[in-house]
Amino acid sequence: SRKRFKALRTVVAWRGRAEWDQVMVGLYCGESRLQQEALDRVSAWKSRYGHKMPLAVDSTAELIRCKVLDSSGRVKSHELILSYGMALVRFVNLITERKQKVVNIPLRQLAREVDIPIWVVDLRHELTHGKLPPLALCRKGCDVVLDWLRKTYWSRQLGNNLCEENEDEDEEQEGVEENAELDNDAWD
C-alpha cells in the first residue's frame, strides 16, 4: 500500500482570507478609526506570529501608525519626524538587508534592484547620519513607501481579487498561506 502524504500547510496568524483582506483595506483606507482597528489586528497577528511576521506587514503597520499619529494632531512635528524617520529607516534597512550578500553592496544599488526610489534611500541616510529632514519630506517618503508596499506586496497577496464571491474559503486561505511565504522570499 502506498502512503499518502498530506501537503504541508503554512500556519499563519490571521483567521482567514476575509480577515487578511479586511486588514489590508483598513490599513490603506485613509480613515484613522479603521486604520487603528487594522493596526490592532496586526498587533494581534504579531503577538501570535512573533519574529515570523512578514516584513512587509510589519513595515506597513509602522508607517500607517505614523500616519494615524500625524492625523491625530496631538504630536509635535519634531516627534512626528522621529516617528516617520524610524519607520522609514527600518523599512529600507530590512528590505535591502535581504538582498545583502557576503560582500557589502551599497544601499542605493540594492534599492534600485527592488525598485525603491533612490531618494528614499537618501532620505534614510539623512535620517540616520545627517540633519533631520522637514516633516513634509518624511510624509512624502511614507506615502511613496506605502504605495510601494501596496503594489509589491499587498496586491500580490490578493492576486488582484478583492471580492471573488464564488470561491471556496479554504482555497482562498491556502492562497494567502502560500503567498505569506512570498514576503520572506520575494525580495531575495
Automatic annotation (TrEMBL):
Residue numbers spanned by region Disordered: 164-188
Coiled coil: none
An annotated GO BP: maturation of 5.8S rRNA
InterPro entries per the UniProt record, alphabetical: Las1
Lineage: superkingdom: Eukaryota
GO cellular component: Las1 complex; preribosome, large subunit precursor
Example of a GO MF term: endonuclease activity
PANTHER family the UniProt entry points to: RIBOSOMAL BIOGENESIS PROTEIN LAS1L (PTHR15002)
Protein's name according to its UniProt entry: LAS1L protein
Organism the protein comes from: Cepphus grylle
